[in-house]
Specification:
It comes from Arenibacter certesii. The chain is α/β, with parallel strands linked by helices and about 240 residues long. The protein folds into two domains: about 120 residues, Response regulator (Rossmann fold); about 100 residues, LytTr DNA-binding domain (OB fold (Dihydrolipoamide Acetyltransferase, E2P)), CATH 2.40.50.1020. About 30% of the residues lie in helices and about 30% in strands. The protein is built from seven helices and 16 strands. It has a five-stranded parallel beta sheet with strand order 2-1-3-4-5, with helices on both faces. It has a five-stranded antiparallel beta sheet with strand order 11-10-9-13-12. It has a three-stranded antiparallel beta sheet with strand order 6-7-8, with no helix packed on it. α2 packs parallel to α3. The chain is elongated and about 55 Å long. It starts with 5 loop residues before the first strand and ends with a helix.
Length: about 240
């Protein structure tokens, strides 16, 4: 039996939410819930772990859709599709920083919804094609990591990696001699590198703490590259800095 893609709908207009839910159910998707607030979306993402979140940008309450997405992405790698009636550049720039898989502009047709969801589902399948629990693309040894790059397994010394940046379901390993994009999530790398000098400092970044040049209140620097430092990861970083 084919496993259904599970979708959370976050929309504060319950008529729109119910209509979307009906359409998705008719298309064969599983709707894990209808929630109206960003705070509820965060709780639902943690407890139900949907495959996709369909998220209205203009939510009422303390958290709008973009803020809710940022909070969710601190702990979960769930593809986001934004619903928006806002076309201003500032809103788009904020939303783009959370790396959504797609935008659907309101008002939208049934065809818009169906095609967008289908394309995102294909992206998810494509990014995980050939992946067994996300580990086939890397092999970590004591002082080096072998990564699949351009069809080959390439050796990188761990000491040569300055930082790692998330790019949706991919990770970019940055060294002084170049960068290597691999189809492995930052969450997987965090687990694999937990006994090495790599620390998560932001939902989108891990750093090699031996490479840090500056530790600021809200940012780090490595070779003049400015890396954001999240409040939720700061104490963990400082604790490890005191041990080296």
């Amino acid at each position: 039996m084919e496993i259904k893609t599970r979708i959370l709908i976050v929309e504060d207009d319950m008529i729109i939410a119910a209509n979307i839910s009906l359409q998705l159910s008719n298309l064969g998707y599983e709707v894990t819930g209808l929630v109206t607030r960003g705070e509820e979306a965060i709780i639902h993402a943690k407890s139900d772990k949907p495959d996709i979140i369909l998220l209205d940008i203009n939510l009422k309450g303390d958290l709008d859709g973009i803020s809710a997405a940022s909070k969710i992405q601190e702990n979960h790698n769930i593809p986001i599709i934004y619903l928006t009636a806002n076309s201003d550049e500032a809103t788009f720039t904020r939303a783009k920083a959370t790396h959504p898989y797609a935008f659907i502009s309101k008002p939208f047709s049934n065809l818009d919804l169906r095609r967008t969801i289908a394309l995102v589902v294909e992206q998810i399948k494509g990014s995980s094609e050939g992946v067994v629990d996300g580990f086939q693309n890397i092999q970590v040894l004591d002082d080096r990591i072998f990564v699949r790059h351009n069809g080959k397994m390439m050796k990188l010394l761990l000491d040569d990696i300055s930082y790692i940046e998330a790019d949706r379901n991919y990770s970019n390993l940055v060294t002084p001699n170049g960068s290597y994009l691999i189809s492995t999530t930052l969450k997987v790398l965090e687990t694999e590198l937990k006994n090495h000098k790599f620390i998560r400092v932001h939902r989108s970044y891990m750093v090699n703490i031996s490479k840090l040049d500056i530790v600021g209140e809200h940012h780090l620097e490595i070779k003049r590259k400015v890396i954001p430092l999240s409040k939720s990861f700061k104490q963990h970083l400082l604790k490890h800095l005191h041990t080296i």
